[in-house]
């Protein structure tokens, strides 16, 4: 029984790839889409933004925005 429990806890969580954005600001603390952005790139799932917010982020010259795929953990079944 201990072996069975150990096997379950050692299994890697399942993941999936989702659309995301890698966003960084030219000046730390710049705010857009309800967030303060850093000069260090931050990966955020695109689902956390509305279509309008994504358009604002991409259009803003104070931000660098790159479309990426993010690997996230899926909920346990």
Task: Name the helicity range.
Answer: 10-25%
Q: Specify the biggest β-sheet.
A: 3 strands, antiparallel
Overall tally of domains = 1
Oligomer: single chain
Low-confidence stretches: none
What's the CATH topology label?
A: Ribosomal Protein L9, domain 1
| Basic shape | elongated
Query: What is the H/E string?
Result: HEEEEHE
Strand % is: 35-45%
Classified by CATH, the class is Alpha Beta
Estimate the mean pLDDT confidence: 88
Number of helical stretches of at least 4 residues: 2
Task: Give the number of DSSP strands.
Answer: 5
Distance, first to last CA: 21 Å
User: How large, in whole angstroms, is the Cα Rg?
Assistant: 17 Å
- Given the helix and strand composition, which structural class is it? alpha+beta
Largest sheet strand order: 4-1-5
- CATH architecture, by name, is 3-Layer(aba) Sandwich
